[in-house]
Design a protein that fits this description.
This is Alternative ribosome rescue aminoacyl-tRNA hydrolase ArfB. The chain is α+β, with helices and mostly antiparallel strands and 146 residues long. It is built from 3 helices and 5 strands, in the order E-E-E-E-H-E-H-H.
Length: 146
């Protein structure tokens, strides 16, 4: 099994390389199509990585990843499953790709919203709409007796 290489992106300018020794794979029977072979071949792959102790992440990346993936974690371990292919080899590749994509997205820093002001045109349109609505409601009122 080779190291998992995650391409460079926001939060990881040099990319990330997860050593193969830190990845844990488990194989089991997959459900679904496959005929008689589905009962005999262990084609489903569960790929796990302990994010709390991996040497692939810096401390700032680790903090960001643990916070972003918290709902998916068991302790500090991230597990992905792939069973969409009949071949164990293709499921292994799919699980690695999925794990890499999750980490790549989680490492990216959050995009902060920049506060903006309403444009002059939108302020004018809002004031005009309020004026029209006010006039409509004023016309519906019962005339005063004075």
């Amino acid at each position: 099994m080779d190291d998992l290489r995650i391409p460079a992106g926001p939060g990881a300018p040099g990319g990330i390389r997860v050593p193969a020794a830190e990845l844990a794979e488990q194989f089991s029977h997959a459900s679904g199509p496959g005929g008689q072979g589905v009962n005999t071949s262990d084609s489903r792959v569960q790929l796990s990585l302990d994010l709390g102790v991996t040497s692939a992440l810096t401390e700032s990346q680790r903090t960001r990843v643990l916070a972003a993936l918290a709902p998916r974690l068991t302790g500090t371990t991230l597990t992905v499953t792939a069973a969409e292919f009949r071949s164990q080899r293709r499921n292994r590749a799919a699980a690695r790709e999925r794990l890499g994509e999750l980490i790549r997205q989680a490492v990216a820093p959050p995009v902060l919203r920049r506060a903006t002001k309403p444009t002059k045109g939108s302020q004018r349109r809002r004031a005009d709409a309020k004026q029209r609505r006010s006039e409509l409601k004023r016309q519906r009122r019962r005339p005063s007796d004075d």
